[in-house]
């Protein structure tokens, strides 16, 4: 039998305990049997193994093989710079591995956050006496005492309660505090049982005794922790693309090396010379600077997002944001302010708007006779406790705080001495207090209209007097408020007779009689001011927004209508609907144009996310509670609330909103889309230089001429002159109209045919032609003729290879501006929005100048100083590339205007 269905005495007997709790010896025995009351972490890999894993992913393996091949080449043919290249590649692997390990080490601490959320101590009955023990020492059968403000340390069944209300949002997602009592209940699951207190929740009002029936991993809290631990994280789209690019690079480099080896053998090149040359080709085609450029570009994007109040915890999540097609958002605290507020006040038979909080002159002026009673009940009938550290000065039930704040805005505050109280209890759904002042004692009562209104015989009239209760008018006003998704509270009072008391429990029903209905209060958790605009931007960007909340359907639908998320009749999926459907049915249900998921649990939310992913969606999920952790971990991008969220949610998420605003998600998605565009920009830039690095090797083998570019000079481009300009492209701001485009499909490639064709077959070919033209021009000017051999240290050869290297750099300077946009002209794009471009340009020019003119640069890279004439040869070639590329862009723009495909 479920523990919430039984009578208290039967539950105690079943747990082998009594109302006075366990004995010390029995508690010790059970502790040895059941273990500590804490969430256990699943075994983790040793730090050394996790560190080693960062150096064994596929792209790292490619770099390791490239370094090994470079060392082999250095062993058999020293003096070609292969040793320095091998050392540089190993350095790149080490820097990237250390950085990635540090990110992962900081990110994988969700289980510590789960344990830290539980309270450290609890008040427990042992041998009939109250004592304070460590929460981790609680065992099933312990009887604990809880007061307002306490966190619940384990799953418990209430055995005694007075005015008990708990905030269960971190476990169930329900935004409103709920009452708890000791009576048996019929409920389908533990989360719905009104006589259970679940670990991780907190008491907001009243006090209780409860018997512990589950501890540690056997609690609902522990079950969710287990679900979170065993929910596999999906690799981000960027991780999948990097893996794909790694395979392509490995295949292309190996194929080219093999081709050059066999071509060399076919034309009579000795075996080892052909092998070493093939190794050089393979190493030259591995973009050593790709991973550090990607990593640093993502890191800069996280800094930009942080300035927009989005803290990214996992670097690949930056790019994943840009592919988001669906946002599954929580309601409370994300779409709404997570702060109850009275928005409708019915008094004297008419509805009015409450006075804004802090309104000037709120000193009681304007309080009419028909309002006085309403405000007196709102200000005086509550179970709040003063707390100077909380905004508003009170801590407790947010609904009661809202009523007190509403009264305070009119200048009405609690007055008189409280002489009695009938606390809120499950089943009563109301509370009353007796307040003495000015020689009179008033009973102030508030609660659910269905229980308060029937106890009223009169209602306040518009002139301040009283008339008989008009049940139809009250019901009509009540229905109107409910249709708006408001929580409606009825407020009533009566003057007590001389000597009448409300302290005796037997007098509860008798005291709360013959009341005067002062009016109704409509309370809501209002939407954030900027949410409607943010939802509209999502719709414009082709992103679906689905509200997934533990709150009531009516409340969720009302909020959805108010923020423009849905129309009048959205598809509402309750938690039981999600549980009942199979995968295909759920996918079809989620395909509805407007969907709201309400009253969902952790498992339901996880199923919704997985169903959307099976449909091919890239899913972003928001959450703030323990119950959200599994879905946050399973989503393509998990987004936790920074202010109102639990540590569990933050540690399970990829991104944390520092301001808890839904609008911040939209800004982050815009940055994510910009990151994808920027990755394509700098990949085009980096890959373009691979062709002028490769073609000289082709010319060397096929035409039997001096090698135009040495391996160490290739390294100077890949890890030197190209690095900072590529990072500058990675820092480009979002382009205009970015959020008017639909999300890119999950199948979209970071490196596709169009990018390869532009980089390799157009820009790369132009750079190759220019660099070889200058190389042969310098040789011809120096009197070289084909067939004449040149030594490695021949001054003419050093000058010619330097000219080839410098031409590639000059062409890349022009390419830096061409790559800022694949279709728009380069010159209208100003530099003010991306000053890193100027730094990148300056760094590139200073570095090539150091390589060409400094003795240390000449010694390391095998270069020689160039005269001014050689530099002048390069400029028209760079301008020609600019003209040809801008002509290509103009042709594409005209094709787009005529409605032709833009490929």
Structure overview:
This protein is α+β, with helices and mostly antiparallel strands and 903 residues long. The chain folds into four domains: 8-41 and 113-229, Distorted Sandwich (Calcium-transporting ATPase, cytoplasmic transduction domain A); 310-337 and 528-660, HAD superfamily/HAD-like (Rossmann fold); 342-524, Calcium-transporting ATPase, cytoplasmic domain N, CATH 3.40.1110; 670-903, Up-down Bundle (Calcium-transporting ATPase, transmembrane domain), CATH 1.20.1110. Helix content is 48%, strand content 16%. It has 33 helices and 26 strands. Strands 10, 11, 14, 15, 16, 17, 18, 19 and 20 form a nine-stranded mixed beta sheet that branches. Strands 8-26-25-24-9-21-23-22 form an eight-stranded mixed beta sheet, sandwiched between helices. Strands 1, 2, 3, 4, 5, 6 and 7 form a seven-stranded antiparallel beta sheet that branches. Helix 9 runs antiparallel to helix 10, helix 11 runs antiparallel to helix 25 and helix 18 (531-540) runs parallel beside helix 25.
Question: Which features would summarize this protein structure in a list?
Answer:
9-stranded mixed β-sheet; 4 domains; Rossmann fold; membrane; Calcium-transporting ATPase, cytoplasmic transduction domain A; elongated; transmembrane helix; 903 residues; cell membrane; P_typ_ATPase; alpha+beta; Calcium-transporting ATPase, cytoplasmic domain N
Structural class given helices, strands, pairing?
A: alpha+beta
Q: What global shape is seen? A: elongated
How many DSSP helices? 33
**Name of the CATH architecture of the largest domain:** Up-down Bundle
Q: Got a strand count?
A: 26
Indicate the mean pLDDT.
Answer: 83
The CATH homologous superfamily of the largest domain is called: Calcium-transporting ATPase, transmembrane domain
Q: State the distance separating the first and last CA atoms.
A: 66 Å
| Helical amount | 40-55%
The quaternary structure here is single chain
- State the name of the first-level CATH class of the largest domain: Mainly Alpha
Return the CATH topology of the largest domain.
Answer: Calcium-transporting ATPase, transmembrane domain
Largest sheet: 9 strands, mixed
Point out poorly predicted stretches.
none
Strand content: 15-25%
Number of domains: 4
Radius of gyration: 36 Å
InterPro entries: ATPase_P-typ_cation-transptr_C, ATPase_P-typ_cation-transptr_N, ATPase_P-typ_cyto_dom_N, ATPase_P-typ_P_site, ATPase_P-typ_TM_dom_sf, ATPase_P-typ_transduc_dom_A_sf, ATPase_P-type_domA, Cation_transp_ATPase_P-type
Protein name: Cation-transporting P-type ATPase
Keywords: ATP-binding, Cell membrane, Membrane, Nucleotide-binding, Translocase, Transmembrane, Transmembrane helix
Membrane topology: Multi-pass membrane protein
């Amino acid at each position: 039998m479920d523990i919430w269905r039984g009578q208290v005495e039967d539950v105690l007997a079943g747990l082998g305990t009594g109302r006075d709790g366990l004995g010390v010896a029995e508690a010790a025995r059970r502790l040895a049997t059941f273990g500590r009351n804490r969430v256990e972490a699943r075994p983790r890999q040793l730090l050394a193994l996790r560190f080693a894993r960062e150096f064994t992913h596929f792209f790292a393996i490619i770099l390791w093989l490239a370094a090994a091949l470079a060392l082999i080449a250095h062993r058999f043919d020293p003096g070609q710079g292969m040793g320095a290249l091998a050392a540089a590649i190993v350095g790149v692997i080490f820097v990237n591995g250390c950085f990635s390990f540090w990110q992962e080490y900081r990110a994988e601490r969700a289980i510590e956050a789960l344990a830290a959320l539980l309270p450290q101590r609890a008040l427990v009955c042992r041998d009939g006496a109250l004592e304070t023990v460590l929460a981790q020492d609680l065992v099933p059968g312990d009887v604990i005492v809880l007061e307002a403000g306490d966190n619940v340390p384990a799953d418990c069944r209430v055995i005694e309660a007075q005015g008990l209300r708990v905030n269960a949002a971190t476990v169930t997602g329900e935004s409103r505090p709920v009452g708890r009592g000791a009576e048996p209940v019929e409920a389908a699951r533990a989360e719905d049982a009104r006589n259970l207190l679940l670990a991780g929740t907190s008491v907001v009002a009243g006090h209780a005794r409860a018997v512990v029936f589950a501890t540690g991993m056997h609690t609902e809290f522990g079950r969710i922790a287990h679900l979170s631990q065993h929910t596999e994280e999906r690799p981000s789209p960027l991780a999948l693309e990097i893996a794909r690019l790694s395979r392509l690079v490995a295949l292309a480099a190996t194929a080219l090396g093999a081709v050059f080896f066999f071509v060399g053998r076919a034309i009579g090149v000795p075996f080892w010379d052909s092998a070493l040359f093939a190794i050089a080709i393979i190493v030259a085609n591995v973009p050593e600077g790709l991973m550090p450029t990607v990593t640093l570009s993502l890191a800069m994007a996280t800094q930009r997002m942080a300035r927009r109040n989005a803290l990214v915890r996992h670097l690949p999540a930056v790019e994943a944001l840009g592919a988001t097609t669906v946002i599954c958002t929580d309601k409370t605290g994300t779409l709404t302010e997570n702060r109850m507020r009275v928005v409708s006040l019915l008094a004297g038979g008419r509805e009015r708007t409450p006075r804004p909080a802090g309104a000037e002159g709120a000193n009681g002026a304007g309080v009419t006779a028909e309002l006085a009673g309403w405000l007196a009940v709102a200000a005086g009938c509550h179970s709040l406790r003063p707390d100077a550290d909380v905004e508003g000065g009170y801590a407790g039930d947010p609904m009661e705080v809202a009523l007190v704040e509403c009264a305070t805005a009119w200048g009405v505050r609690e007055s008189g001495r409280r002489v009695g109280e009938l606390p809120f209890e499950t089943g009563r759904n109301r509370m009353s207090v007796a307040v003495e002042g000015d020689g009179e004692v008033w009973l102030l009562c508030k609660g659910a209209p269905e229980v308060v209104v029937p106890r009223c015989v009169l209602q306040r009239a518009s002139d301040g007097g009283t008339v008989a209760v008009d049940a139809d008018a009250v019901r009509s006003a009540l229905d109107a408020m409910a249709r708006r998704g408001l929580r409606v509270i009825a407020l009533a009072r009566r003057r007590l007779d001389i000597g009448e008391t409300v302290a005796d429990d037997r007098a509860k029903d008798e005291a709360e009689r013959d009341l005067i209905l002062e009016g109704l209060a409509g309370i809501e958790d209002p939407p954030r001011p900027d949410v409607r605009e943010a939802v509209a931007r999502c719709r414009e960007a082709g992103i679906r927004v689905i509200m997934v909340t533990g709150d009531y359907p009516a409340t969720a639908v009302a909020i959805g209508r108010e923020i423009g998320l849905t129309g009048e009749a959205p598809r509402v999926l309750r938690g039981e609907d999600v549980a009942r459907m199979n995968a295909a049915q759920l996918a079809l249900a989620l395909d509805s144009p407007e969907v709201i998921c309400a009253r969902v649990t952790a498992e339901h939310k996880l199923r919704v996310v997985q169903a959307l992913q099976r449909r091919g969606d890239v899913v972003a999920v928001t959450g703030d509670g323990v119950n959200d952790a599994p879905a946050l971990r399973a989503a393509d991008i998990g987004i936790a609330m920074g202010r109102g969220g639990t540590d569990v949610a933050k540690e399970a998420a990829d991104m944390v909103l520092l301001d808890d605003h839904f609008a911040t998600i939209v800004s982050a998605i815009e940055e994510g889309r910009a990151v994808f565009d920027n990755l394509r920009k700098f990949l085009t830039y980096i890959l373009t230089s691979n062709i002028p690095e490769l073609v000289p090797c082709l010319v060397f083998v096929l035409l039997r001429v001096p090698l135009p570019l040495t391996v160490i000079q290739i390294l100077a481009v890949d890890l030197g002159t190209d690095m900072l300009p590529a990072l500058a492209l990675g820092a480009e701001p979002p382009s205009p109209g970015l959020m008017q485009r639909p999300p890119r499909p999950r199948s979209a490639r970071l490196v596709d045919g169009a990018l390869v064709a532009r980089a390799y077959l157009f820009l790369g070919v132009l750079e190759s032609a220019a660099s070889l033209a200058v190389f042969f021009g310098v040789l011809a000017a120096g009197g070289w003729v084909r067939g004449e051999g040149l030594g490695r240290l021949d001054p003419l050869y050093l000058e010619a290879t330097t000219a080839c290297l410098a031409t590639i750099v000059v062409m890349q300077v022009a390419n830096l501006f061409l790559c800022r946009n694949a279709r728009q002209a380069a010159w209208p794009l100003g530099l003010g929005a991306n000053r890193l471009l100027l730094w990148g340009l300056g760094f590139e020019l200073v570095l090539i100048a150091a390589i060409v003119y400094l003795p240390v640069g000449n010694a390391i890279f095998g270069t020689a100083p160039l005269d001014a004439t050689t530099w002048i040869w390069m400029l028209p070639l760079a301008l020609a590339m600019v003209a040809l590329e801008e002509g290509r862009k103009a042709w594409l723009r005209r094709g787009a205007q005529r409605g032709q495909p833009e490929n």
